[in-house]
C-alpha cells in the first residue's frame, strides 16, 4: 500500500496563532502547507513545502480565482481553459503543480479528469456531495501519475476519503484550526498507510550452524515492543518474522530499537510491499516494523551495522514450499513461534512451528511481479 499523506491549509489568523498551528502540524509529521500570505515566515519554521499560486511556492497552485473554484466560468468543452493553460505553463517551467477544484457540478468533475494527466496533485473540494464524485474521479484517474487529495473538515471526513473505492485518495487537506484534530488526522493518515501481511505457520525442517559471515544489525529510530520485528529471508517470496532485541537477556541489555536481521544478502520487507537487500540499508531509509498479527508501521533506519559473526541456517516448510534464512548464531537472536512467542535460534529445532510470510509473486528489483523465478 502506498503511503498516504496529509496537508494543511492555514486559517485566516494572526501570524502568532497561525505559527502555533503549523508547528503542531510539523510535529505531527505534516510538512506541506497551503498558504498565500506568510510564505517566508513559514519557511523559517522548518523544512516545509509551500503550496500557493505564487512562483516562489514549492508547489504551484492553479484554480484559485480561476475555473477550479468557480470564480471564472468554465466552458463545457474546456476550450481556452485558463486553469489548463496555467498548469501547462508551470509544468513547462519545471514546477510541481497542484490543481484546486471545487466539485460544483459535473463539468468541474470533468475538469479534474482533464487536469489529471497534466498536474502532480489535485485538491478536490466538495460542496453538497459526499463520496460519489470522489469515486468517479479516482476511477477515471487511476492510471494517471497524479495524486488525489480530498479537502476534509474533520477526522470522520478524512477517514471516509482515505477509504473510498478500497484504495481511497492519496491524501487529505484540512484547515488547521484545532490542535487535537490536527494530531488525530495525522494519526489516521499513518493508520491508513499501514499494510497488513497474512502470516502463516511453517514447520522447521533443518537447523545448521555455519561459519562466519557479514551480518547486519538494523538500528531504527523507533522503540519496538515485544512481538515486533521485521520480515527477513533468503528468498524475496518467503520470509521469517525475526524478532527485535526488545527482550531482556542475562547476557546483554535489551536494545528495542534493533533487529539483528541476518547476513548482507538477505531480503527485508520495506514500505510499498517492496524488498531491499540488508546490505543496501543506510541511515534515513524506511523499513517496516511488523508484529505477530502482521500489522505494520514504518520506521527509519538510524544506523546499519555490518559485522562478521557466526551464522546459522534455518529452513522451514509451508505447503511444500521451502523457506530459508540465515541469522547470527547467538542466544539473543529470535524468530517467532506459532503462539506468538519469541524463539531463540539457540533453541529452535526441527518440528517447531514458526511464523512466516509467503507470497505468490516473484520480485524484480524488489517489486512484486508475475514471473517465474527460482530461488534456492
Structural account:
With 376 residues, the protein is of the alpha/beta class. The protein has 2 domains: 5-193, Aldolase class I (TIM Barrel, Alpha-Beta Barrel), CATH 3.20.20; 199-369, Endonuclease - Pi-scei, Chain A, domain 1. Mean pLDDT is 89; it is low at 362-372. The protein has helices spanning 15-27, 39-43, 82-92, 106-115, 132-140, 155-163, 179-193; strands at 5-9, 32-34, 49-52, 59-62, 96-102, 121-125, 147-151, 171-175, 199-220, 228-235, 238-243, 258-263, 267-270, 274-277, 286-291, 296-318, 321-328, 334-336, 342-344, 353-358, 362-364, 367-369. Helix content is 19%, strand content 38%. α4 runs parallel beside α5 (132-140) and α6 packs parallel to α7 (179-193). The two termini are 28 Å apart. The strands form 4 sheets. Strands 1-2-3-4-5-6-7-8 form an 8-stranded parallel beta barrel, surrounded by 4 helices. The chain has a 6-stranded antiparallel beta barrel with strand order 9-16-15-10-11-20. The chain is built from 7 helices and 22 strands. The longest helix is centred in the middle third of the chain and has 15 residues, at 179-193.
Topology:
Elements: E1 5-9, H1 15-27, E2 32-34, H2 39-43, E3 49-52, E4 59-62, H3 82-92, E5 96-102, H4 106-115, E6 121-125, H5 132-140, E7 147-151, H6 155-163, E8 171-175, H7 179-193, E9 199-220, E10 228-235, E11 238-243, E12 258-263, E13 267-270, E14 274-277, E15 286-291, E16 296-318, E17 321-328, E18 334-336, E19 342-344, E20 353-358, E21 362-364, E22 367-369
Parallel strand pairs: 1-2, 1-8, 2-3, 3-4, 4-5, 5-6, 6-7, 7-8
Antiparallel strand pairs: 9-12, 9-16, 9-20, 10-11, 10-13, 10-15, 11-20, 13-14, 15-16, 16-17, 18-19, 21-22
Helix pairs in contact: 4-5, 6-7
Amino acid at each position: 500500500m502506498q503511503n498516504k499523506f496529509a496537508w494543511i491549509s492555514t486559517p485566516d489568523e494572526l501570524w502568532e496563532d497561525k505559527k502555533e498551528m503549523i508547528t503542531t502540524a510539523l510535529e505531527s509529521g505534516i510538512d506541506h502547507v497551503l498558504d498565500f500570505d506568510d510564505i517566508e515566515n513559514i519557511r523559517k519554521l522548518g523544512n516545509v513545502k509551500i503550496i500557493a499560486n505564487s512562483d516562489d511556492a514549492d508547489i504551484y497552485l492553479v484554480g484559485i480565482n480561476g475555473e477550479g473554484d468557480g470564480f471564472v466560468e468554465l466552458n463545457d468543452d474546456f476550450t481556452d481553459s485558463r486553469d489548463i493553460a496555467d498548469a501547462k505553463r508551470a509544468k513547462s517551467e519545471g514546477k510541481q503543480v497542484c490543481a484546486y477544484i471545487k466539485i460544483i457540478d459535473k463539468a468541474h468533475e470533468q475538469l479534474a479528469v482533464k487536469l489529471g494527466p497534466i498536474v502532480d496533485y489535485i485538491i478536490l473540494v466538495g460542496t453538497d456531495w459526499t463520496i460519489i464524485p470522489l469515486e468517479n474521479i479516482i476511477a477515471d484517474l487511476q492510471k494517471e501519475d497524479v495524486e488525489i487529495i480530498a479537502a476534509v473538515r474533520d477526522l470522520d471526513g478524512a477517514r471516509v476519503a482515505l477509504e473510498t473505492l478500497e484504495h481511497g485518495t492519496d491524501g487529505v487537506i484540512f484547515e488547521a484550526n484545532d490542535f487535537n484534530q490536527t494530531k488525530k488526522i495525522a494519526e489516521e493518515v499513518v493508520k491508513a498507510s499501514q499494510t497488513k501481511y497474512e502470516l502463516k505457520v511453517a514447520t522447521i525442517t533443518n537447523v545448521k550452524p555455519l561459519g562466519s559471515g557479514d551480518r547486519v544489525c538494523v538500528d531504527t529510530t523507533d522503540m519496538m515492543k515485544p512481538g515486533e520485528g521485521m520480515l527477513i529471508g533468503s528468498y524475496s517470496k518467503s520470509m521469517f518474522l525475526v524478532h527485535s532485541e526488545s527482550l531482556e537477556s542475562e547476557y546483554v541489555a535489551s536494545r528495542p530499537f534493533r533487529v539483528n536481521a541476518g547476513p548482507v544478502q538477505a531480503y527485508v520487507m520495506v514500505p510499498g510491499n517492496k524488498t531491499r537487500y540488508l546490505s543496501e540499508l543506510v541511515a534515513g531509509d524506511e523499513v517496516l516494523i511488523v508484529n505477530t498479527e502482521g500489522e505494520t508501521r514504518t520506521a527509519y533506519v538510524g544506523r546499519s551495522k555490518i559485522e562478521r559473526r557466526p551464522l546459522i541456517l534455518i529452513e522451514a516448510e509451508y505447503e511444500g514450499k521451502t523457506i530459508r534464512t540465515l541469522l547470527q548464531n547467538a542466544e539473543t537472536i529470535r524468530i517467532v513461534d506459532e503462539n506468538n512467542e519469541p524463539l531463540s535460534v539457540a533453541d529452535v529445532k526441527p518440528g517447531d512451528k514458526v511464523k512466516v510470510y509467503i507470497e505468490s509473486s516473484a520480485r524484480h528489483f524488489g517489486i512484486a511481479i508475475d514471473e517465474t523465478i527460482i530461488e534456492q
